């Protein structure tokens, strides 16, 4: 394996023009994500910068010579402004005809199902596109998307892609749970152009006989269903069948959760996800299959058409994730350059061009973890593979192959580690061994599945192929499970803030400049970055030692409260939450705040009363006492949880309090009644399910 020179000093900027565009373009998108600048300001900035750059050419020569840097700077600012404008335009809420602008509480909504229903524990999940609103006795075209949850009803047929529904129900806003350190689900939905959600019962919608949707999408779904039926018929059921479906076509609904956790613990969850590796295998296979075509311009065009048709068909079949789109765009550029234009370009320029085109098409990909990890892994391999490989001069052929695989894994890990720590807060220690096992086996399995699909018309041969694939998947899963169960296989609860992540990348940049390019100031940059890492860590530890707060978590169906002082946290609530998925919410919050279980200073508890540094919290989860005491009981906060039948007026006669807190496990109708009563009497209240986790600083 060989890549072009990794020294940036050798790679001229003129050979990679998209590298000069991608950085300001990303900067503009990032600024708009967090500042939301007005579009007119952005438009004026772009126009003024372009006009100034154009007028610069008419200045006297001596002025142009002295200010030669100015046109480039103006163009960089215009590119950044263009990125910000594209992000603003990509938000459906800023487009004319957004359905929420014309909707009333009584209007009907015409929806179209945009993806097959995914079965959940108590419902089906899907997304729908808003087609029109029925307002003032007429249908008005509208734009928008909704997240749908449809209750299970065996008496009605399951909805399919393209089905159209008429709905009369008010959508709810998609909210973030607000728990410290938790995944920002609201931001993720915004990046998918989803802002509201609907929970539908059978009586809430009417299914029309007319269907819509794309014929291409229907064909792709039929192709996916055919692959799934072949795998289930010849490979069987269980973890092996779910893994087979995920490996080849990216269908993850049947994946066993314990298997996914095993792959995550060993750092090779990318094997399960459809990624650039799959398209690289497909690209190499297509080149081998088409090698019989004679050389020539028209033969090259035919090769390009066949290769691109298969590559993009596979990308769409598997769901077109960020990593697949990155590979598809890169291989498209390579194929067109090789077979149509008959020229080669810098691989760095191809990588930057693919990122630029994808971000121009969908700017929200900039905050997609898969997009970031995919590009960082490829860039890291391009930069570090060759220097790592040349560190050890090996003569034995089998050792050369082994060291090549290890070098690729090490190179990819270098630039993906900081962002992985930022998102997942863990590091797999045996990722090299796991990659050595899983990458070759998964490659053989993928080719075997393709052969199985080809043999599907011949049941006897397909049965033997299915048994062989099932055995290989079982062997791969067993090896990964064994590696994940080894001592010290996984380092967990690693706190890595955004500032620390930036410092780590600056440290890598300094090392790369010093090592790869021989630029001595790179060592100073690395030293300063290391100092920045230490300072960032020290600041975080200082803040952790000084924290003192009460947190009521936003966890449906459970009561969860943490009393925090320094690095100690005392949990109060439903102990059964620690045996459920809700425990991950508490663990993520404690990792974010550097906490461990303990009894913090100043904490006192008597039954449902808790006192912590002068703040008293009362938990009410049942009916109120019938007798009114002579003196009201004092409490700073009263938490209503588990749907207690409480009358707010009677509550006022029993307790003297400052704030009512409604937990996320209460019924929505009951919370609505409580809110109305509080507003009528002027009482302050906080709704955890709507406003996020309640956090009170007590010092």
Automatic annotation (TrEMBL):
Pfam families: Competence (PF03772), DUF4131 (PF13567). The keyword Cell membrane applies. It is a multi-pass membrane protein. One of its GO terms (cellular component) is plasma membrane. InterPro entries: ComEC_N, Competence_DNA_uptake, DUF4131. Residues 247-516 form the ComEC/Rec2-related protein domain. Residues 37-203 form the DUF4131 domain. The chain crosses the membrane at residues 18-35, 41-59, 267-289, 301-318, 348-367, 373-392, 399-424, 460-484, 490-516, 523-541. It is found in: Cell membrane. Keywords: Cell membrane, Membrane, Transmembrane, Transmembrane helix. This is ComEC family competence protein. The lineage of its organism: Bacteria, Pseudomonadati, Bacteroidota, Chitinophagia, Chitinophagales.
